[in-house]
Every structure is written in C-alpha cells, then in structure tokens.
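TL;DR need structure tokens for one chain.
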Amino acid sequence: MGYRAIARTTGEQFVLGGLAELDRAVSNESYVDAAAKLANASIAYFADDNDIIHESCEPDSCDSNETQFKGIFIRNLKLLHSVAPNDVYAKVINASANSIWQNDRNAQNQLGVDWAGPVSQVDASTHSSAMDALVAATGI
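>> reply
TL;DR here they are.
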C-alpha cells in the first residue's frame, strides 16, 4: 500500500486548509503552490492503490484522535480543491467517499475507521471523520 507504518496525516490536515485560506485572503499563488506540493506528497504517502486515504494505525490500533486526522485532511483537501481545482484531489476525495459508503458502513449506517473496508472499529470519532469525506465529495 502507499501509506507508511509510522506517519500520520496530523500536520498536513491543518496546513492545507490554512494555506488555502491564506490564498483566499491575499491571493498569493505561493500559498497554493506550497499547499499543492504538500497535498501531492501526502496523497502519494497516505493513499492506497485505489486512491483511498489511510492512517498507519488502521485497522485496529487507532485512538480517537488518530481516527479524526484523515477526515480533517480530506475536508481541507476539498478546501484546497475549491481554490485550485485539481483532478487528483477530486479523485482521492471521491474514491475515499465512495469506498466509505460501499465498504466501511455497517447495517446501522455507522462508518468505520478503515475507509477501504471491511467495517471494523466504529465510534463517534470514526463516523465523524468519514462524514467529512462524504460531505467533501458532495461538493466536487
């Protein structure tokens, strides 16, 4: 898989959104350029061969903070996509959201931690993180 054993999407999640908002505020292309480099590197690092974002703690060793990271990353990737549209960003957002709905949802429509499935760890944190991806995909 394309994701690594020790990395997390922690830092990337906030920086992407911040750089996109800075670009909106002052229209400085260097912010978008920096965000694009970070987004592309993060996608190469955290996405699997099907363009679904993962955390290294999956499927069964994530704590409630770790389960939030990729949802926030996807939300901010969507924000970057709204400032600087990119087919790769759209593909990753849509692939993650589609896989969540098809492979990571239980009979009660609760959403789990491993967006590629099968559904395993399910709690408020995993559900809200997956919802970030579903909401992001509606705007693509």
